[in-house]
């Protein structure tokens, strides 16, 4: 049985006055129904551009220049605009970091949810409203029959994000792309949102790509993890394996930067320097200038090496590993 989502050799570039920005530069991953993939990396690593590419939301000066995105066996790269509009919201939904990117401030929640349903289905307004109320209740909105008539500004940040998640769930999509949906929330609300998303995935079998810079969050929700750096996936494998036994020095650096993994009173063992500009990547491994394990041979492009079942690292010498044959 084929995967729900297959991304192969995806390259998304942007033409700028300064040159060609290779925001996503050849990534591969698959996602099965009911699976959660954590797509992790620093700001500028290309993870958000990758999710926008899947949805067909890349506009000039950006474009998908190469690769394949197959959803339920259907090729999305080069698909007609009308077809992508049919898929967005109904089959593939997105939850943004800022819920105000999803919600229109001058319209009631009721109007926005009902119109979202009617854009894809021929049902009565009453049936659409009833479904909207039901979904609001499912994501933990109290008194949904009353709150549905409120405007976005009448909700707290956490409640607005729940509404945004509810809108994404209106058509029971097969795939949800969640772009750092808990970053702007406090820790308590963040935990509640993650718990709600885990419950929904378990109940509905929806697959999800969870985009984040925070491995501590991804560890709690993802089945598999793909770590991005400078537009490429540098490590990919089962969540417990990647986080518990990282093979790439960049993954190790991200984990060392998590405060909860540091002894109280000690300085964080952060990654030195900054991520390189994708306009001017160093030769060979782009992480080499920041890597404490770098050797002269890292000036050549690193190979993809498998260090375990389904666990790969794009590194010349994966950390403390025997490369699988």
What does this protein structure show overall?
With 325 residues, the protein is of the alpha/beta class. It has ten helices and twelve strands. It has an eight-stranded mixed β-sheet, sandwiched between helices. Strands 2-1-4-5 form a four-stranded antiparallel β-sheet. α3 packs across α4 (125-138) and α4 (125-138) crosses α6. The protein starts with a strand and ends in an 11-residue tail after the last strand. The model has no long low-confidence stretch (mean pLDDT 90).
Which tags fit this structure?
10 helices; alpha/beta; eight-stranded mixed beta sheet; four-stranded antiparallel beta sheet; 12 strands; 24% strand
Short description:
The chain has 325 residues and is an alpha/beta fold. It has helices at 47-55, 81-87, 109-118, 125-138, 144-147, 157-169, 187-204, 215-221, 239-244, 249-256; strands spanning 5-16, 19-31, 36-40, 62-71, 74-75, 92-95, 175-179, 207-212, 224-229, 232-238, 304-308, 311-314. The protein contains 10 helices and 12 strands.
- Note the run of SSEs as H and E: EEEHEEHEHHHHEHEHEEHHEE
* Poorly predicted parts: none
Mean pLDDT: 90
Please count the helical segments: 10
Count of DSSP strands: 12
Strand order of the largest sheet: 6-7-8-3-9-10-12-11
Radius of gyration: 21 Å
Distance between the termini: 26 Å
Write the layout of secondary structure elements.
Layout: E1 5-16, E2 19-31, E3 36-40, H1 47-55, E4 62-71, E5 74-75, H2 81-87, E6 92-95, H3 109-118, H4 125-138, H5 144-147, H6 157-169, E7 175-179, H7 187-204, E8 207-212, H8 215-221, E9 224-229, E10 232-238, H9 239-244, H10 249-256, E11 304-308, E12 311-314
Parallel strand pairs: 3-8, 3-9, 6-7, 7-8
Antiparallel strand pairs: 1-2, 1-4, 4-5, 9-10, 10-12, 11-12
Helix pairs in contact: 3-4, 4-6
